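Table S2 (text version). Query chain:
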Amino acid sequence: MKNITLIGAGGHAKSCIDVINSTKQFKVKYLVGENKFYNNEIFNLKKIIIADKVNNFIKNFKNLNILIAVGQLKTGVERNKLYQFYKNLGCNFPKIISINSYVSKFSKIKEGSIIMHGAIININSTIGKNCIINSKSLIEHDCVIGDNIHVSTGVIINGGVQVGDNSFIGSG
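Corresponding structure-token output:
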């Protein structure tokens, strides 16, 4: 298994860890979070890196696998800034797909996106970079989901729909 570092240490990071563990492709090695998370643990992982000290950490690891594990918050601006920052440092952004989801072999998932438990991505759909397709969401045939989008839990997006970059679609 390859190591992966999560940028984020809150509630969404917990869900990401569960999905990552289900894939058996990656092992969460490090969590990067704010000072308020420093002494907390998630699934026996201690958050050892404080966000403002991350530059020194990243420089020591070339080709580091990263997942932005910060939820959407009020807008996608923060997720996008984090993605761009680590991309510029040369980090890798694997796509993470829960074994408990379905993705058509005729669909495309781009780098840094996570497909959570129970999500369905049907034929000929594209999921952009740095997206969250949350639990039990359905993306029907021929959809285009842009970059840096959060599709919340239980969302249904019907066939042929296009969702623009930096969008948030609320639960249900």
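Notes on Table S2: The helical segments are 11-23, 54-59, 77-88. The first strand starts at residue 2 and ends at 7.
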